[in-house]
UniProtKB/TrEMBL annotation:
<keyword id="KW-0333">Golgi apparatus</keyword>
<comment type="similarity">
    <text>Belongs to the glycosyltransferase 47 family.</text>
</comment>
<dbReference type="InterPro" id="IPR040911">
    <property type="entry name" value="Exostosin_GT47"/>
</dbReference>
<feature type="signal peptide">
    <location>
        <begin position="1"/>
        <end position="18"/>
    </location>
</feature>
<protein>
    <submittedName>
        <fullName>G10029 protein</fullName>
    </submittedName>
</protein>
<feature type="domain" description="Exostosin GT47">
    <location>
        <begin position="157"/>
        <end position="397"/>
    </location>
</feature>
<dbReference type="Pfam" id="PF03016">
    <property type="entry name" value="Exostosin_GT47"/>
</dbReference>
<keyword id="KW-0732">Signal</keyword>
<feature type="domain" description="Exostosin GT47">
    <location>
        <begin position="53"/>
        <end position="112"/>
    </location>
</feature>
<dbReference type="InterPro" id="IPR004263">
    <property type="entry name" value="Exostosin"/>
</dbReference>
């Protein structure tokens, strides 16, 4: 039965989600149970799936409430979607209080704030990049070796918290063993997801547990032979010491979400509203000699190359320079295109903020999954211009061809406007991030437990 369902699932999704995604803003969680066709070896039979398919573990305070009391001196809210999702699912209509009826199990641990609290140590208050204390007697403060030890200290402590949480669940509840954790998930809310927060765990400890995360990189494998950015590989380049038995992102299991940001529906700007007087906006910087350069060959080198390229040949009507997030959001609302250069990862929150401000994003993905694309069919290729990192010098020519084609430009803007709602984190936003997470989790539940996925009407 399970094999037949999994074989047919992509076909069912392809037929249903293509039309559903356009109407997702009008869909609501049903107040009634809906009968749903389920394919089995003996043909089609009718089963009644439950709308309440998720059980949220009540974890000890050390994993949630106590972490909330920590006061990191530097902690962007974008890493707090583990807390946001915990609060949401506690009150969601997909939650069941009966674990025997659950198809999925959430293990809430506030890893984002916990990891950041360790990561900022040894630094100037408010500036984690400025290391002022010796991390080891033999290392100079601010040296690459000190940075490496700082990262590993944060990763090691956070990994231990994950290990303890999993041990607690396995010892206190009987539900893990049935599927070796495949119906369980945690939220890994930092840049490299599990590779930041569960670095030291082995496959035997993680089982088949999946994650909700923002990291969808398909190029960083367990043993990368080629760096995912345009520079000559050297042995002394910074490399991630990720787990060797599993990847940071599993596209057939993990659920991708944008990093968190506070936008209300009223903050969304149509690409057709206002004067789009800036042709191309570049609101990021690259400062030589800062701490980031010691550890991030990934995106900051490309930022440097793009900025130098723009200085040598600025596109007419374009702007470059670093501003506050609030100023950047305002500038995005008056720009046609926004360059979303990578940072610590291929992806950046700037991509989704640009979408909400009606600015067509320009990305530099080599191979990267994005939220709600693989299973829910959000067609990023229709409203995002992607340029391979090696081809960044084609930026101006690619841009100019679109600017010279009003029909193509309008098509991209229309597609962007049609999908802006998918990227709102606001509770209750029609077709927003929270709604789509629940939709995708219902698909995961069907794949894991061989039951029909919940229907959203």
């Amino acid at each position: 039965m399970k094999r037949d369902w999994l074989v047919l699932l992509p076909l069912l999704l392809a037929g249903s989600h293509a039309s559903e995604i356009e109407n997702v803003g009008k869909q609501r969680l049903s107040k009634k149970f809906h009968e749903h066709a389920h394919v089995s070896g003996g043909g089609i039979k009718r089963q009644r799936p439950t709308k309440e398919y998720m059980y949220v573990y009540d974890m000890p305070a050390k994993y949630t409430a106590d972490i909330r009391k920590l006061s990191p001196e530097w902690h962007p809210d974008q890493y707090d979607f583990d807390q946001v999702l915990h609060e949401h699912f506690q009150n969601s209509r997909v939650r069941t209080e009966d674990p025997e009826q659950a198809q999925l199990f959430m293990i809430p641990v506030y890893l984002g704030r916990y990891y950041n609290w360790f990561w900022q140590q040894w630094s100037t208050p408010g500036n984690p990049w400025d290391i002022v204390e010796d991390c080891e007697p033999r290392h100079r403060a601010g040296s690459p070796e000190c940075w490496w030890e700082k990262w590993m200290w944060a990763k090691g402590n956070t990994s231990e918290l994950v290990r303890e949480a999993l041990q607690h669940v396995k010892a206190s509840h009987p539900h893990w063993e049935k599927h070796n954790g495949a119906n369980h998930f945690m939220v890994f809310s930092y840049d490299h997801a599990r590779c930041d927060m569960a670095l030291t765990l082995r496959l035997s400890e993680m089982g088949q547990m999946f994650s909700i995360q923002s990291y969808g990189d398909l190029t960083l494998t367990n043993e990368p032979k080629v760096p995912p950015i345009i520079q000559r590989w050297q042995e002394n380049n910074y490399t991630w010491g990720q787990p060797r038995s599993w990847a940071c992102f599993r596209p057939d299991a993990d659920v991708l979400v944008p990093m968190y940001y506070e936008f209300d529906p009223k903050d969304v700007v149509s690409p057709f509203v206002g004067e789009r007087s800036v042709s191309m906006l570049m609101r990021f910087a690259y400062t030589e000699g800062d701490g980031k350069n010691l550890v991030e060959h990934y995106g900051h080198r490309l930022r440097h190359e793009i900025i130098e390229y723009w200085k040598a040949d600025p596109l007419e009507g374009s702007e470059q320079g670093l501003k506050t997030p609030e100023e950047t959001d305002a500038d995005m609302a008056r720009s046609l295109f926004c360059v979303c250069a990578p940072g610590a990862t291929q992806d950046t929150t700037r991509l989704f903020r640009a979408i909400l401000k009606g600015c067509i994003p320009i990305t530099f993905f080599r191979a990267n999954d994005l939220p709600f694309a693989r299973y829910l069919g959000v067609p990023y290729e229709e409203f995002v211009l992607n340029i391979q990192p090696d081809d960044y010098i084609q930026l101006n020519s690619k841009m100019q061809r679109i600017l010279d084609s009003p029909t193509r430009l309008r098509h991209m803007q229309e597609a962007l406007e049609a999908h802006q709602r998918h990227f709102l984190w606001s509770e209750g936003a029609e077709g927003g991030v929270l709604f789509n997470i629940e939709r995708e989790l219902s698909v995961r539940a069907a794949m894991v437990t061989d039951t029909p996925h919940s229907v959203f009407r």
